[in-house]
Predict the 3D structure of the following.
Amino acid sequence: MSGHLGGRLAQVVPTLLLVSVMVFGLQQLMPGDPALVLAGDSADAQTVAQIRSELWLDRSIPAQYAHWLGNVLHGNLGYSWRNREPVTTLIAEKLPVTIQLGVMAFTLAVVIGVPAGVIAAVKRNTIWDTLANAIGLAGLSTPTFWLGIMMILLISVDLGWLPPSGYVPLTQDWVRSLATTIMPAIVLGSGIAAVLMRHTRSAMLGALGQDFVRTARAKGLRERVVVVRHALRNALIPVVTLGALELGTLLSGAVLTEQVFSIPGFGKMIVDAVFNRDYPVVQGVVLVTATLFVLLNLLADVLYVYINPRLRAT
């Protein structure tokens, strides 16, 4: 177990370092000059040159990267070039919003997708299997922005059950907060539930055909015990991997969904930062997102050990 996790931990620092190089390097390819955007069309050359000097834009790219990475290692992600606020402050304001939305969507996806996949595999070639696959295909094929607009028209405009947009923090009013995030959570979770259902079904079909399942049945174990304790446990490893990736995607910000429902999360912030050429915000958000992905993959590796006892001996 220690060797398996130790090897994964040893990959964290090189991975994040490579991500930082890619984030900084690819961002240099973005068109436009941030100094000109910040100075405005009427600014003279001296003002533009002063802004470039203050932002280290007149240095070489390696020098800019070294300066930025040094600040990051000290916990300083820089200041927004647009409003002069610390990037860490902006992230601290937006990240809880995205975490709440992402966790709600992922919970709905797991609660719906995994059981549906298990039922579809156990009831293979029955009406339940056909229905689960049809619903899953619909969930994968439906654009999130269209589903969000339709839900707003039906649930908010026609029925008046939920607010159409906006966000209220949990600490301010948890009931109102859930009311403003349940629709976007359903929109995001529907597609992920479909993906989890299809992968769970495929993994379960493979597990149900293994010798250890036939042996468990031959011992006279109840079908529910065979399915849950034997087949499902061995089928969860690919599902856990996929779940970690999908949760990381949710926590990185759902751009279209946040735009449709006016949710002030990571997605909206990164779009605004790109349009405003606000490099420190873009770099900070992408670096935090990459760190979340790495941590979630580490969590998935830990879950592997508990799901698959054979890994405990490695």
